[in-house]
């Protein structure tokens, strides 16, 4: 077998051999630290029964470490220039499929059904391109894929927002959206020095463990999403004002106030103080009155 891809020396050799220039616009920051990769793989609890979906293999640093532990890896890469590189660097692994696609445009249900027929345990693992972190994570969660969880390297600031608790400065619509679908944990923070080129922001490994059933009962899931998004539209406004201006209309202000008092949530509170459970209560009560 070849030497591991994820060392500074080997990565530079590969990039030079192909005259490859990283594109910032595609979030191309390659991992060069085996220790970090081992931590990512361990955090995902990958076994030889696991099927892994990877987003953005780059030159294959993480893909290789995943393939060593997993039953199979299916990896989506948008940049055509990387296909011959990957063909070369991953040539000794038989359990990797590279798919040349924008992950945001693929039907992941179909890929899982077709590629993981013989697999009961599916994980998504990636060092994500930072310019599309949130859309990728929300796609993975909202599509309700048959996966156990997601372990990703992302911007530390986004990891903090996703894992945030009510009443903290990081808590917002993204926290609730993610925590509705999954249990969120920041596994570790990671310095820029483990990437080539180094990203401008700090990074962190985030683990999302997908919930088997939703943590709250909702009359209408889409309405719940509208309610908490509206509640955070202007962080300085009260719940009542945000809901009046961003969910319903001025004419319905009294109804909203009435509903809030009825469910014992002070209309003067701010969205950032409400728990997921309180947003569920609020969305169900409002739905009954106005929809
Ligand atoms: N996994 C490699 C590593 O850890 O060294 C590379 C990670 S790099 C941060 C992100 C990778 O995602 C790049 O290879 C980039 O070309 C790819 N990428 C960017 N946007 C993508 C998209 N929409 N769909 C699939 N891959 C994408």
From TrEMBL:
SMART domains documented for this protein: rADc
Top-level EC class as recorded in UniProt: transferase
A Pfam match: RrnaAD
E.C. designation(s): 2.1.1.182
Binding site for S-adenosyl-L-methionine: 29, 31, 56, 77, 102, 127
Range of residues in the leader sequence: none
Protein name stated in the entry: Ribosomal RNA small subunit methyltransferase A
Compartments in which it is found: Cytoplasm
Keywords in alphabetical order: Cytoplasm, Methyltransferase, RNA-binding, rRNA processing, S-adenosyl-L-methionine, Transferase
Keyword DNA-binding: no
Annotated organism of origin: Halalkalibacter hemicellulosilyticusJCM 9152
Family listed: Belongs to the class I-like SAM-binding methyltransferase superfamily. rRNA adenine N(6)-methyltransferase family. RsmA subfamily.
One Gene Ontology CC term in the entry: cytosol
Catalyzed reactions per annotation: adenosine(1518)/adenosine(1519) in 16S rRNA + 4 S-adenosyl-L-methionine = N(6)-dimethyladenosine(1518)/N(6)-dimethyladenosine(1519) in 16S rRNA + 4 S-adenosyl-L-homocysteine + 4 H(+)
InterPro entries (alphabetical): KsgA/Erm, rRNA_Ade_diMease-like_C, rRNA_Ade_Mease_Trfase_CS, rRNA_Ade_methylase_Trfase_N, rRNA_adenine_dimethylase, SAM-dependent_MTases_sf
GO molecular function: 16S rRNA (adenine(1518)-N(6)/adenine(1519)-N(6))-dimethyltransferase activity; RNA binding
Domain Ribosomal RNA adenine methylase transferase N-terminal: 36-212
Major localization listed first in the record, in broad terms: cytoplasm
